[in-house]
Amino acid sequence: MTDLDFARPAEETARPAEETIDDLRAIAEAGAAQLGPDATASELLAWTAETFGPDFLIAANMQDAVLIDVADKAITDKDAVGGKLKALFLDTGYHFAETLGTRDAVESVYNLELINVTPEQTVEQQDELVGRNLFASDPGECCRLRKVVPLKASLAPYRAWVTGIRRVEAPTRANAPLISFDDAFGLVKINPLAAWTDEEFQNYIDANGVLVNPLVDEGYPSIGCEPCTLKPKAGEDPRSGRWAGRAKTECGLHAS
User: Which residues form the Phosphoadenosine phosphosulphate reductase domain (predicted)?
Assistant: First the structure.
């Protein structure tokens, strides 16, 4: 596991010095047109590896290893991506022990480089700077400091990132494209699982024996930081346990 404080530069990549934001935007548009709206997850990941080589990261929230498993199977030529897939995990300091355990299990099962990104301040340092339990007084600012800012710095050297978001997860994700340019972070964003239904997702887990965070079986269908995640009541929206009782529904990573 590679621990990365976001204040330090990430591993150098081969991002062309002359490549501009407009170039990356054009790559995203061309990829979307080439593959079309019905591209499979495997096709999207193969295109990602062919297009970006080692210059992309896979975002892993460690609710499960579905995206990593699909990528591992789709990208068979690991030399094309520098020998190992790169998976990024945002270690906010507030995760459930089960989530950290899933992270460690995933690293042991798959041949990948796991980049464990931490914020500039520890939880204790943040408490001293802005007051205790910022997640309760200003959850948006807490997410910004512990997720958005470190992610933006960690993605800066890369040309693309791959996420596991799906359209059925929330109204805010209902129109998530398969390939787009991410204005918030300044690189191409690929969502290979965007079109997957809950049934397709579960069928893949069952068929491939994919690692899943044990909290899922305990009734947590959407897992974030421990202080901001509750178990939804029967019949409630799966994401209703995230920032329960607040209008907040997203942490800011997938705002675009």
Answer: 58-230
